[in-house]
Write a structure and sequence with these properties.
The protein is built from 3 helices and 2 strands; from the N terminus they run αββαα. It is of the alpha+beta class and 105 residues long. The protein has a domain of 54 residues: Arc Repressor Mutant, subunit A, CATH 1.10.10. A hairpin with a 2-residue loop joins strand 1 and strand 2.
Length: 105
C-alpha cells in the first residue's frame, strides 16, 4: 500500500499531512488534480456501464453489478497476501478461526 500512495503522491494526485491526533500517523488527502481525475474516471465508468447495459440489458447489468459487489466484499476480507484477513485475538489453543461465516472444528 505504501508504494501505491508513494506513486500517487509523486504524480500529484494525493498529499500526506500529519495527523493532528497522532504524531506518528499521516493522513492522505486528494489534491485538486486527484479530484479532477476522480470526476473524469466516474464519467468514463458511467459511459462504459451505459454501453454494457445497451448490450446486455438493464436486468443483466444489475446482476453483473450485484455479482461484482459480492466479489469486492469477499476480497475486502483478504489481506495483501490473498489470505483471509485476520482480526481480533488469535483463536484459543486447539481451535481454528471462523472464516467467512463458517466455523471450523
Amino acid at each position: 500500500m505504501k508504494e501505491l500512495i508513494d506513486d500517487l503522491e509523486a504524480s500529484g494526485y494525493v498529499v500526506r499531512r500529519p495527523d493532528p491526533r497522532d504524531r506518528r500517523a499521516k493522513l492522505i488527502f486528494t489534491t485538486d488534480r486527484g479530484e479532477r481525475t476522480i470526476v473524469r474516471c466516474r464519467a468514463l465508468i458511467a459511459e462504459i456501464e451505459a454501453d454494457w447495459e445497451r448490450v446486455i440489458g438493464k436486468r443483466r447489468m444489475r446482476e453483473v453489478k450485484t455479482a461484482l459487489r459480492a466479489i469486492l466484499a469477499f476480497e475486502a476480507g483478504r489481506g495483501e497476501d490473498g489470505e483471509p484477513a485476520r482480526s481480533g485475538p488469535p483463536p484459543a489453543r486447539g481451535e481454528r478461526r471462523a472464516c467467512r461465516g463458517h466455523r471450523h472444528p
